[in-house]
UniProtKB/TrEMBL annotation:
Residues 1-26 form the signal peptide. SUPFAM superfamilies: Histone H3 K4-specific methyltransferase SET7/9 N-terminal domain (SSF82185). It comes from Marivirga salinarum. It comes from the Bacteria. Keywords: Signal. This is Membrane-binding protein. Transmembrane segments: none annotated.
Length: 895
């Protein structure tokens, strides 16, 4: 086992962090990216890389490189992490030609210039970081092709796709809107010389289901399909009013593969080899809307593999039919060998033959009346069923590699290893039953033995679960013993096969356990008595050989000592453990660095820290380990508590994430939160565990973002931004507080005002706006959520409703949110009108033409009504009506 030298570096840094204000080691120089632009730790998946931004007089220089070393991108950022680009940023193709230049302001795109073969090709303007006007060229890894979209006033106007030449073989569409308001796609398709192959038009709704024939998509013209990588002609399909007129499919060589000519509701197809030889001809009824042959027809029908990488396009299936009835079917492998053949007779009789990879006969099955009669029925590659004169006499299961695993004849199953040796036998109730009676049953998972289950008189008496981890030092198996259906014992084994732990059970209740090392020596014993743990308990990392904790208990079940270990990995990715904490319930407890040096020490009394410093390691994050350094005085947290983020990568890096002043167990004083680059992120002050005093937040460059104050844990004075809880639907908000009182509050989404709240005569007045900017709801509520809701509706008029304790009390409400699945109740109801008071309610259902369908009424409070509670989601409606008083209310109660 090799331990990285950087472990020593971490220990040294960690100790410094206990006494210094802020320390950080340099991060790893190189970041690797995959084809999708995501960071990856696997070098073999990377397609480009970057170094840490370099600070200059003009900002932070950011560069990316292809694996060849050729520069991919260069530009300046105003932030140390390289995310906030500023000015012109240039991207390059791997041959060194410029791909595009983009102008940034405060991290937002403003202008893009695309290049092709070193020459300026197109330009585009951006607004709100989105393309607004002009054309851009983007390489799409998923398509192995370039996308060339054009935008007009922020909307997509056209999109073309090409691989090597924007003026060569390509296809794309332009969007327009017709007189009916439908968005249309107008396609154009070009060959390798840039010559027009066809034009095609359709509605821009590719996956919509159409309930009415008149609503079918408009499909007119010649549609061309292409192979990709490289881009070549694949098919030409001609449409008229949504129906196919003809189609031609081609090999990659350009030779004709298939031609379909349609006359009315009948089509004739001819199939060809790549050398032009006729393979077959077929005629039959045709679905011209969805482009396929219906049932029936006469002739030879051929289906091909979709082999886009080769020019041969091998035959997958050949079907011969006469007057709509199958005569013969043949299925072929990609290498051309016959895989399966079926010859059809009358009344469901047929003969089915299967062939191996070399094309030799492997199985034959005779069918009668559509049922297996004699031979081998291949249900799948893992299971075969044997039939003799109409009766199933055996079932055979196989390993994925093809060797026999289980052979079941009548009620007896025999199990084999891959060498063909018998490893177990079991008796079942019957051939088709999987209920074991006696013997040992084996089960596979991912072609490996997963379970071994032993049965006696129909009851499971033992189960062995096997584990097949590809990582080292993981457990190999778990063995469970049952008596009369109750678990009595459970054994866990190391990766070496040696016993790790032996648990004694009484059903679900543990009675005792013994722990062993790999040499068979006992390392701990624990008894469970009267819900007390007595002895030594050993906990392991999840399904691992490695110990995580060792705890010793006294006769009263109280903890005496505890040792805590952390898991690390050497250079070969083999895990090992290091002692992290040695805790004495009464006495000195010590905390250690990865190199074994002492980090901190504390005195414990009755199992709790009393004085000194402890180190907590609460959780593991994918990016870092979190350590919390806590000083104690007379049993209370007292002093500066530090949260340290430790990054387990070369070179090791540890940074302070937070520093908080504690007095007598509570935050009292300054609290600082930092960015990973060491810059201060938040400065705030606490008093008796509550926010009290100044609050200042900063960006990564040290500029103030927000500044306000708290009093006794509640906002007190200032302009608060982006701090509202329960507001995932809001991306821009602010509220002004003056001496604990709300002045105003605005919620916005994409710069559109959603809600506006202010104080009016001691009540909160909230106006909720529609998408068009008109007000739809006005709420007047006091601090107890009593008041009124005014609904604004130009068609239905205004209605004022009374709210009591945050719930509807009386008035008229309109609902579109109800259980529309209950069609027998609501039928074609479009919306509901409910009039209510404390003692009764009345419901009227309307259809989409505002015509009344039915009425319901009860002389009881709506909260007591089964109809309301079951079918009408009043509470859900009210949340939509005013999320304000259901969830945001707490943000305005500052006193």
């Amino acid at each position: 086992m090799t331990i990285k030298l950087s472990t020593w570096l971490f220990a040294f840094t960690f100790i410094l962090l206990l006494t210094t204000k802020q320390t950080a080691l340099a991060q790893s120089d190189t970041t690797w990216y995959d084809a999708s632009g995501y960071t990856t730790n696997l070098r073999e998946r990377a397609v480009y890389y970057s170094f840490n931004p370099i600070k200059t007089d003009s900002g932070y220089r950011v560069e990316e490189f292809y694996l060849s070393g050729q520069k991919k991108m260069e530009g300046l950022s105003t932030s140390a992490d390289g995310q906030l680009m500023e000015g012109w940023v240039t991207w390059y193709y791997e041959n060194g030609d410029i791909s595009e230049k983009v102008f940034y302001e405060k991290g937002n795109r403003k202008k893009c210039i695309s290049y092709w073969e070193g020459e300026k090709f197109s330009t585009a303007e951006y607004r709100n970081n989105k393309a607004y006007e002009g054309k851009i060229v983007v390489y799409a890894n998923s398509r192995s092709a370039y996308l060339m979209p054009t935008y007009r006033q922020g909307s997509l106007h056209s999109l073309y796709i090409f691989e090597n030449d924007p003026n060569g073989i390509r296809y794309g569409y332009t969007l327009t809107v017709d007189n009916d308001g439908d968005t249309l796609r107008h396609y154009k398709f070009y060959d390798e010389n840039g010559e027009l192959l066809g034009k095609y038009e359709c509605v821009d709704q590719e996956f919509e289901m159409y309930a009415d024939e008149e609503d079918k998509p408009k499909k007119n013209g010649t549609f061309v399909d292409y192979y990709s990588d490289p881009m070549q002609l694949g098919a030409i399909i001609k449409y008229k009013k949504g129906n196919v007129l003809s189609r031609k499919d081609y090999y990659r060589t350009g030779a004709l593969r298939e031609e379909v000519i349609i006359e009315g509701e009948t089509a004739t197809a001819k199939y060809y080899k790549s050398d032009g030889t006729l393979l077959g001809e077929f005629s039959g009824p045709y679905n011209t809307e969805y482009d396929y042959f219906k049932r029936g027809g006469t002739g030879t029908k051929v289906d091909f593999y979709d082999d886009k990488e080769g020019s041969h396009m091998p035959v997958r299936e050949i079907v011969k039919r006469e007057d709509g009835e199958n005569v013969e079917k043949k299925f072929y492998a990609r290498n051309g060998n016959l895989k399966r053949s079926i010859k059809f007779g009358d009344n469901g009789d047929r003969v089915e033959k299967r062939f191996n990879d070399e094309g030799n006969l492997s199985h034959e099955l005779i069918w009668k009346n559509n049922d297996p009669y004699h031979g081998t029925f291949v249900q799948n590659s893992m299971m075969h069923k044997i039939y003799e004169k109409g009766e199933m006499t055996g079932i055979i299961h196989f390993y994925k590699s093809g060797e026999k695993f289980r052979n079941k004849r009548d009620s007896i199953a025999t199990y084999y290893n891959k060498e063909g040796e018998v490893i177990a036998k079991a008796t079942f109730e019957s051939l088709e039953s999987e209920k074991p009676i006696e013997g040992t049953v084996m089960e596979l998972f991912n072609a490996k033995l997963r379970y071994e289950k032993h049965y006696k008189h129909g009851k499971e008496i033992k189960k062995v679960e096997y584990f097949h981890y590809k990582y080292p030092l993981r457990i190999s198996k778990k063995e469970t013993i049952y008596v009369d259906g109750r678990r009595t014992r459970e054994k866990w084994y190391y990766s070496t096969g040696d016993l790790r732990s032996d648990f004694i059970y009484d059903g679900y209740r543990r009675k005792a356990v013994a722990y062993y090392d790999k040499d068979g020596e006992v390392i701990g014993k624990l008894n469970y008595s009267n819900r007390k743990e007595i002895g030594t308990e050993v906990k392991f990392f999840y399904e691992s050989d490695l110990i995580r904790e060792v705890t010793k208990y006294d006769e009263e079940g109280e903890i005496l000592t505890k040792k805590i270990y952390d898991k690390r990995y050497d250079e070969d990715k083999v895990p090992y453990t290091i002692l992290e904490a040695d805790i004495q319930s009464n006495g000195k407890s010590k905390y250690y660095a990865p190199d074994g040096s002492k980090l901190a020490e504390a005195e414990f009394r009755v199992g709790e820290p009393f004085s000194g410093v402890i180190v907590e390691h609460p959780s593991y994050n994918a990016d870092y380990d979190l350590y919390i350094i806590k000083p104690f005085k007379e049993g209370e947290v007292h002093g500066i508590v530090k949260e340290i983020k430790y990054f387990d990568k070369e070179p090791y890096q540890a940074v302070v994430g937070r520093e908080s002043v504690y007095k007598e167990g509570q935050r009292n004083g300054v609290d600082k939160i930092y960015y990973l680059n060491g810059e201060l992120r938040i400065f705030q002050h606490y008093k008796n565990g509550q926010l009290h005093g100044k609050y200042i937040s900063y960006d990564e460059n040290g500029h103030i973002e927000d500044q306000y104050s708290y009093k006794e844990g509640k906002p007190y004075d200032g302009l608060f931004k982006n701090s509202i809880p329960y507001t995932r639907d809001i991306d821009d908000n602010e509220y002004k507080i003056n001496k604990g009182n709300l002045v105003y509050c605005n919620f916005k989404l994409d710069s559109r005002l959603l809600e506006k709240t202010k104080m009016v005569d001691g009540q909160y007045e909230t106006v909720i706006y529609k998408e068009n900017g008109t007000d739809s709801i006005t709420l007047m509520l006091d601090e107890n959520r009593n008041g009124s809701v005014l609904l604004h509706d130009r068609e239905k008029g205004e209605s004022e409703n009374i709210i009591k304790d945050g719930e509807p009390w009386s008035g008229t409400f309109y609902f579109t949110d109800f259980d529309k699945r209950e069609t027998e109740v609501f039928g074609e109801t479009e919306y509901l009108k409910i009039t209510l008071d404390p003692n009764s309610w009345k419901l009227i259902a309307y259809n989409m033409d505002d015509e009344e369908i039915f009425q319901l009424a009860e002389r009881k409070n709506w909260k007591e009504s089964n109809v309301i509670s079951r079918y009408i989601w009043v509470d859900s409606y009210l949340k939509d009506l005013s999320f304000f008083y259901k969830h945001r209310w707490s943000t305005f109660k500052f006193k």
